[in-house]
């Protein structure tokens, strides 16, 4: 009888520890998502400003796009959420569209797909 209790207690403890560790992993992922979404939002704001000031310095647009791409890479590596993956893919396509427009000489590219996808990432990453 005592042995059964010991085994049951050991199994319950192992289950509790596993649950706690899994919960911490999920919490860490959620925090990474929030931090990355915030970094993307900042990069998108910088992109909007760069497009507004493109007549002064077109390289700012490219720098902002590179920053967004870096954050997207970080985010894509840390998620298995289908909604977030779709938003990341949409933002990646938007960034590439803007990048192509700039390479083709457009100094005021349409960044709506970028801002829309960034907003979706913010929604997916916001807890609650």
TrEMBL record:
This protein's UniProt keywords: Signal
Signal peptide: 1-26
Gene3D superfamilies cross-referenced by the UniProt entry: 1.20.1170.10
PROSITE patterns given in the database record: PROKAR_LIPOPROTEIN
Protein name in UniProt: Secreted protein
Organism: Streptomyces filamentosus
Lineage: Bacteria, Bacillati, Actinomycetota, Actinomycetes, Kitasatosporales
